Amino acid sequence: MKPSQIQTVLSEHYGLDAVRQEVLGGESDHNVRIVTADGEEFLLKATKGSTEDVVLRWQTDVLAHLAERVPQVPVSRLVPARSGDSLVAYGPYVVRLLTWLPGTLFAEVPHHPPALLTELGQVAGRLTLALADLPVRDGITSHHWDVRRARDAIETGLPFVTNENDRGNVARVLSWFDRCAGEFGELPAGVVHHDINDFNVLAEPGDGGEWRLSGVLDVGDALHTIRVAEVAIAVAYAMLRKEDPLAAAVAVVAGFHSVVPLTESELAVIFPLAAARLCVNATTWTRRTAEAEDGYGRARMRHTWPAVARIVRIHPALAEAAFRAACGFSRPESPRPRADSAVVSGPLTEIDLTPASDLYDGLDWTEPHAVARATGARGFSRHLSASLLAAEPRSGAAETVQLGIRLFLPEGEPLRAPLAAKVERTGEQLVLRHQDFWSIWWGVDSPLGTGERAEPGAILGKAGADVQVQVVTAPAFVAEPPPRHVRPADVPLWTILSPDPAALLGAAPAGSARRDVHDIVSVRRSRFARSQRAYYRRPMNLVRGRGVWLYDEDGFGYLDAINNVTHVGHAEPRVSAAAARQLAKLNTNSRFVYEGIAAYAERLCATLPDPLEVAFLVCTGSEANDLALRIARQVTGRTDVLVLDGAYHGNTTAVTGISPNRYKGPGGTGAPPTTHEVVRPDRYRGPYGYDDPDAGARYAADVAAVVAGLDSPPAAFIAESLMGTAGTIMLPDGYLPAAFSAVRAAGGLCISDEVQVGVGRLGSAFWGFETHGVVPDIVTMGKPLGNGHPIAAVVTTREIADAFDTGMKYFNTFGGNPVSCAIGQTVLDIVQGDGLQEHAADVGAYFLRTLHELRERHAVVGDVRGQGLYLGIELVRDGREPATAEAMAVAEAMKDRGVIVYPTGVHDNVLKIKPPMVFDREHVTRFAETLDAVLLSLR
Ligand SMILES: Cc1ncc(COP(=O)(O)O)c(C=O)c1O
């Protein structure tokens, strides 16, 4: 209908004058939002047909019934025309006017918290209750979207689906559907809305910001059918765009059940019906868009195919168990597997496949058969334990827990039936029926055929390369076996569905004494001071690292973007081997004479320019800075020190006093009288920006001014070459040379703190100060030197070192011990031998470019900066206000998606990026994609 025709209908039949018309999408109706001069809003529906059309009259019945029965449920109401009827004939159209409901389409609500999904289920339940006794008009029997006819609907669309994966997924859903279709006649029936989809539901944020349901639209599909159709359809669309579709489904079912108690038979069909409904949606709109380009159709199915792909991975029996648990149904009695005869001859020992297992130390477990070769044993791994062999980046979908027991046996070894059995399935899995449960055998080459019987001790077949045995209690697993690995979150449900096969296999697991994350956190609380904070509100229990990846107890992998200490990669095998070799030979203190210390001191000093040639080997960066401060004060005979505002230099009493990041931060008591701050040369927030070519000189002028203002000249100026904890602050060109000159002119020493950024990280130079063309008097270094082993150092000139020798001994119990020196040597060998500095330059430049692209797309990204593999992403809101809470939320969400990054900076709003130097371009891509998704989800 044209706008002018709409205007005519409105004024003639409703006495309304539209000042605005907005055409909305719709499957068959022409839907228009109307705004009148008084600011009233309506939904106008124009449908081709006659006012006697039974479908339109039926919709009128449904709306009137709902208005009467559940006035509190926000469903649009029909507005009668002047004639009193609510259907108006206009040319070939029937026009209806409905009240306008406020809110955002459910599909466009940024995230659906469990409470909102539960409310969705409750509203669906209320509609179902209200409609239960509505008499059905003659002629209203079924339509394309009728869930009972999903197979027919899917089959008409399937020929248009060309993607083989999609076709396979639909076939699987159809097999689920077929298995439950025979039950429909037995299920409770009634009239239902039948279309609680994410374009038909509206939500609005409440006073506290939490989203509440604000409307249900479109009764066009209302039907007398199985009552469970209502909740199945709501579940279907609630699963769209969800990383954990089952959790969303559970919330909706629980809500519905709280209003309309569901029967056990209904619970069993919800998931197959919901999946079938999504397949109807996907295939129907694929067909319709193929037949005629249809933007509405594309929008309707955009998220459906990906959701179907995710949903087919969920076993319907698992979904049913989840719904039963959510609705308070009792768990079925679990049979206890036992064996009348041994499956294999000889004992089996337990092989620990969990991520913490010693088995993987020094082993590339991703190499096929590496574990089997390494154990060489006949063994078994424990049921429902996380396996590093199944490790995946953390996500709601990652399946890292082994379901059942894996057997490690020589290939070809015969396996025998533990109990009397009937073969119910052969092929990829051998499925045996026992008296009160089934056993499922993967990787067994069996001569048995379906229907055959096997007595205890009879040969089942020969072991293949990868044998796994499961026990299940539900017949649903015969038609479709369970997965070999499951999500850690589903372990409680699988415990019900799949008992431990250990007794069946004669494989007795030893007790397990490992602490879990809750235990560890609680001990940290009781045994540590609160000031020793842990990362993350919901931390993970890390049990292993390798390269750029960290792994937790559940087998979730985390891409590590912040550990610059493990410079050459987590658990680098060459470093571990060097440490183990030296630890097995000799470890003592540096007052004894041994070769390693000479070799390391020479090697370390060779990385520095003249005249930096004398080393003190210590254990931490704090200790290094503490010593540097002591040297500077003693050598100059002065006490005052200049520091950059925002800097952090360590945790001893002395260096806390030169760390504005601490003494000005929470709990800080201010600067000691001998500490003098200079302006942080921050070109994003400071007075001189990126566009000022003289920013370096201007910020350095402040150093000169502070020096000039001192009562007595300074002992030292200390600065990082790129400020780390202050928030990845890049010192502008010319800053350090001018600052050093001003300090030296006053007789002070210049200290470069390379603890964070040294050892090739900045890419263009081995040490950060070299990127500024200066040579300091004292250099301090730490974190990366030992790849996690505590090695730190102070390197200075012969002249300064000699002046420090007043006769007082300097002794460090651990600094420079033989093990540290062996590790330090190996780290330098790897950095230089593997070209990691050049790698940092290359990957870092790519990383920075990638982050700049991301910045274009997200207003919350205020600035990206850095050099080599030391980068920062500054998050802001409303211009440049620091987005501190958002930065923490991003870090938490990134962690939940398997990427570790954390806020730092003066305002804790800069995401620091300083990964192990083996971070590659593919890791950059993963990081950027995850950050992009997280920033979108938090909008
Ligand atoms: C620049 C800088 N200097 C010194 C330190 C202190 O090093 P450590 O923690 O090894 O004592 C740190 C630690 O983060 C640092 O960032």
TrEMBL record:
UniProt keyword annotations, A-Z: Aminotransferase, Antibiotic biosynthesis, Pyridoxal phosphate, Transferase
GO molecular-function terms, A-Z: pyridoxal phosphate binding; transaminase activity
PROSITE patterns: AA_TRANSFER_CLASS_3
Region Disordered, residue ranges: 658-683
CDD domains linked to this entry: OAT_like
Gene3D superfamilies: 3.90.1200.10, Aspartate Aminotransferase, domain 1, Type I PLP-dependent aspartate aminotransferase-like (Major domain)
Any single biological process term in GO: antibiotic biosynthetic process
Limits of the Aminoglycoside phosphotransferase domain: 22-252
InterPro entries: Aminoglycoside_PTrfase, Aminotrans_3, Aminotrans_3_PPA_site, Kinase-like_dom_sf, PyrdxlP-dep_Trfase, PyrdxlP-dep_Trfase_major, PyrdxlP-dep_Trfase_small
One Pfam family, short name: Aminotran_3
Keyword Transferase: yes
Protein family per UniProt: Belongs to the class-III pyridoxal-phosphate-dependent aminotransferase family.
Name the record gives this protein: Aminotransferase class III-fold pyridoxal phosphate-dependent enzyme
The organism's taxonomic lineage, starting at the top: Bacteria, Bacillati, Actinomycetota, Actinomycetes, Pseudonocardiales
